Amino acid sequence: MRQRLGRLRLTPKGLPYLLLLPALLLELLIHLVPMVVGIAMSFKQLTQFFIRDWSSAPWTGLGNYHLAVDFSAPVGQSLLNSFWVTCAFTILAVGLSWLVGTTAAIMMQDAFRGRGLLRAAFLLPYALPVYAAVITWSFMFQRDTGLVNHVLHDQLHLTSDRPFWLIGDNSFTALVVVSVWRSWPFAFLTLTAGLQNIPRELYEAAAMDGAGVWQQIRRITLPSLRPVNLVLVLVLFLWTFNDFNTPYVLFGKSAPEASDLISIHIYQSSFVTWNFGAGSAMSVLLLLFLLLVTSVYLFTTSRRRGADD
Amino acid sequence: MRINRLAAATAVVATLALTATACGGGSSTGGSGDNSSPKTLTYWASNQGTSLENDKQVLEPELRKFEQQTGIKVKLEVIPWSDLLNRILAATTSGQGPDVLNIGNTWSASLQATGALLSFDDATFGKIGGKDRFLPATIASAGAAGKDPAAVPLYSMAYGLYYNKKMFQAAGIERPPATWDELIADGQKLTKDGKYGIAVEGGNVSENVHHAFTLGKQHGADFFDASGKPAFDAPEAVAAIKQYVDLIAKDKIAAPGNAEYANNQTLTDFATGKVGMMMWQSAGANLKSHGMNPDDYGVAPVPVPAGASGTKLTSSMVAGINLAVFKNTKNLNGALDFVKFMTGKDEQIQLNKTYGSIPPVADAQGDAAFATPELQALSKVLGSSAQPLPQVANESQFETLVGTAVKNLLAAAAAGKPVTDESVKAELTKAQQQMPAN
User: Fold this and answer.
1) Do B433 and A37 touch (CB under 8 A)?
2) A73/B433 Cβ within 8 A
């Protein structure tokens, strides 16, 4: 009797871990194993001669990393260029998506006729399949027959000559526009949910005290949304920094230099030049950078919150 | 608590960052094929017709013929060109692929180096009816020199200069240009009222590299030296590529908008009379589908420099599609039977006729279907002035890197930036330095 009691007392401790085990094993299989394989690949000279049996590829130690970070050589130079392009792109795209999403969410906060319809319309870009949406954009951005130039050049006469959007320097603008168009609905959705948790009484009390709309937004809405924003910006950052579909569908396998995002660059370095080891090394470097940014972000934001409390 | 959050975030970031590239790992699958599944075959066809659907309609009846003859059911998948090479690489890595597949003939040596394709040695050729049935130039584009071919030729093509007869007449041009000076002079006569002399598919990396190769040969550039090392930025190569980019930059006989063409807009422009000339391979079927009558255009060899001789008279690459057998096939005999069927006289006539290409099999060429002015002109090019692209293991990388360099240069030219020997050389040097060292 005593023994059985003892076993019963043990079970509640062990049970959660037992229940977690299948998920843990799957997680290992689906995420961790490919990751470890990817890291292992980055130390190998994995070219077309070895892909059929890649365990036979020779080890190169840090050779692939040397190649990637040798910024005086073309491979490293173009990786560095791609890195800065991606940073600028991410800051712009995340900032604008957040701004548009927040503005829209606040404006949709109070009930009015047609609010449901507008909300649904706002979510449309998020619901569309990526490929279909972006390929439509690429048609609109065509120089001679696209809608964008038709409006800017033919209708509004804003430009003296038809600009190119899919090649050359303007491709960066095109990329930011499409990316913001795709990701702001997510910001809108998240923030709309966040707004539901702010008690109405706060606004009523503020109005009684004579606070205007701006003051209400600055003193009540934004501080209350802070926890939501923390997660939202992080997720948007990671998605945007790693975005592969948008540039790939927009520009194909060889993106213009001005919009050579790091994901496409790595794809090119591995699939197009058949040098999978170098591509993996670049991926690992990207991983380390994203880890660093995320850690610093979480560390500073959680410390600030500690100070606030 | 903070450490837990960090750990969780670490896991999330790591997953997001690495799953994109790590999906390529596969098991080692050595060894050659066997005959453990003799009743089925999987066939990957490339997109030869006007659409993927069109290809299925063309090929399905032929595959049923094969099934009636041999009892082997062929599962067909038509794969667009944009995906084909990646699909083959994935199949190579995983060992899970088709039994028989079409490859661009320029990829032959690159894919040969992976060891994924069955070598056609004399014994294997014996099973499909012999090596001497095929034209020598097409066999030369089926693998590296001195090795057994990694594939056999299926459809052959060559580049020709297509010109619009009515536009030439209206501009007072009597015959198609034979030299580049003539082409530029004719192009300038045709360029007026929103129409242009010539169209180029500037956003298409493959088209770019094909023209770069032909022009390179005309200037004496080989892109690879005798030991197989890349020589992209040799002065001859710079001159060749500058000449091509100058069609937009200096001569201004191609529309700047051409720099972003990547969806065969060249064909549309030519068929609708917006341009007077284009350099294309086997365009007949496509032009017809755009409503252009074969009588409205003529086909001549791509121009060469005045006074050229020897290989400087090259006017085209040996273009075409090869048929390969995947080494891991579970139906080796069936796969070879299928290769024999597809390269047999009847199928060669039937399929090449439909696709507007030239049969690489000698005894099929005599058919009346290949006596059109277009195909006769292209046949002559293929037989006399076409050279295979470099058959080296790094050929795929060469195509992509040099093709991209030309795309960037055309984009710069279209944006009005100056294109000089220095800027062309810099772009080519950059491409060359990205070639993997091995």
Assistant:
1) no
2) yes
